[in-house]
Amino acid sequence: MPRVVDWVDPFGVRVKILSRHWPASLRFYIFALEVAWTLFRERANYEIAYFLMTGLHVVTGTLMARLLGKKIVMKFSCSGEIVRMKDSWVGRLEVGLLRRYAASLLVLNPGMVQEALDAGFSREQIGWMPNPIDIDKFSPCSEEERLRFRQELGVSADTPLVVFVGRLVEQKKIPWLLGSFVHVVREQPNAMLAILGDGSLGEEMTQLAMSLGLEKNVLFTGRVSSDGVLKWLRAGDVYTLISAVEGLPCSLIEAMATGIAPVVSDIPAHTQIVDHETHGLITELGNETSVAQGLLRMLRDAELRKRIAVASRERIVRQFSIQHVGDCYEELFANVLGPK
Questions:
Q1: I need a surface site. Which of 16, 195, 208, 325 has the fewest CB within 10 A?
Q2: What residue ranges in the chain does DSSP mark as E strands?
């Protein structure tokens, strides 16, 4: 986001950025008040209040939207989010208000459906809404382009290349990935793991890779632009994501759309889009040997990678394109508003 308050994005959408210039200690509370005030001030210009992130602003916003007679939709972005809300007074208040007033509660995977039911939401309130991606941008490339990207990235044509994209935080389980890659390197000494992204565990993970003797096999790129991510995905042989917790990972969807075969952990966020042996390989959560076996199998079998890449791309185009998800939202909002 630009360092401004009012902004029109590249698609012509007007964006109001709230509480940016307030001290960090007050921002949480000021944002909640500004959300409520904005909903009141703009009351003639909208019909649905749509919330994406949890926080005190959902409490103030829900109360204001309810007072104004507006419909309310909430989307949860990660597994475990609804469960964690019971640990704070704000979260408990959010759940209570949403349970009572939300016309629709959107989740990202089957595990989150059960979390919502356990929190007291009705089955009729709960809906699934995918994250969209640009399937024209994230698309496969030719073999000639792949080799050119490798040359630009300093990766030789015959290097087995595994790519990870994501924040370097606890839920991504980078230590498990590094531990797994030790086994991979024993079988394929020239294999390379490119870890794209940054986060609070960046320095710690760099030190861990060195202590495991992987300094020649693991590259930490730091934060990479969207175009840079695309280049690495197109250059790679295998994409991997072995997180313990996800909602619906955009990085995995982008990788599958690009045509790079995935190796993932066995969690609901992954298994809803990856059928084992069809769209990727699913490995046992937390089992470094299982992950290593999946990576090695995929790296060794070019025909398997090719077959999976085609099937993965087809699934993403069918279910996660911007056009398809846009149609899903239009249908959702029409149903929420009802006949006019």
A1: 16
A2: 6-8, 14-16, 48-51, 71-75, 104-107, 126-128, 161-165, 192-196, 218-222, 238-241, 261-265, 281-283
Select from 141, 319, 156 the least CA-distant residue to 230.
141
15 Cβ partners below 8 Å, 6+ apart? 1, 6, 7, 8, 9
For the domain made up of 6-130+323-337, the CATH class stated in words is alpha beta
Pairing of strands 71-75, 48-51: parallel
Once rounded to an integer, what is the mean pLDDT over residues 168-191? 96
Q: How far apart are CA 98 and CA 69, in angstroms?
A: 14
The amino acid occupying position 276 is H
Same fold, 6-130+323-337 and 143-320: yes
- For residue 158, give the 3-state DSSP assignment: coil
Q: Could you identify the residue written with the tokens 């009802």?
A: 338
Structural tokens at position 166:
């994501």
The identity of residue 271, as a single letter, is T
* Contact status, residue 288 vs residue 265, Cβ threshold 8 Å: no
Using the predicted structure, report yes or no on whether residue 216 has a pLDDT greater than 80. yes
Instruction: Tell me which CATH code domain 143-320 carries.
Output: 3.40.50.2000
The whole-number pLDDT of residue 339 equals 84
Tokens representing residue 236 in the block: 């790679």
Amino acid at 120: G
Q: Where are the domains of the chain?
A: 6-130+323-337, 143-320
Q: How confident is the model at residue 247 (pLDDT cuts 50, 70, 90)?
A: confident
- Cα distances from 209 to residues 173, 177, 229, in angstroms, run 13, 10, 21
pTM value surpassing 0.90: no
Assess whether pLDDT exceeds 90 at residue 10.
Answer: no
Residues 102 and 121: their CA atoms lie apart, in Å, by 10
- C-alpha span between 101 and 131 (Å, rounded): 24
Structural contact between residues 123 and 117, judged by C-beta atoms closer than 8 angstroms: yes
